[in-house]
Amino acid sequence: MLELDPDVAAYLGTRENWVPMHVAGVDAARAAFDAVPQPPGPPMHHVEDHIVPGPHGPLRIRAYRPRAAAGLPAIVYFHGGGLIIGSIDHFDRLARLIAQACDAVVLGVDYRLAPEHPFPVANDEAYFATQWAADSATRLGIDPHRIALAGDSAGAALAAGTTLQTRDQGGTPITFQLLIYAGLDRDDTKPSVHEFADGPIITAGDFAWTKNLYLGDDPATDHPYGVPSLAEDLAGLPPAIVVTASHDPSRDGAEEYGERLRDAGVQTALLRYPGVAHGFLMHADRHVRARLALAEIGGIVRAKFAAT
Question: Which is the catalytic residue, given 153, 192, 246, 250?
Answer without folding.
Answer: 153
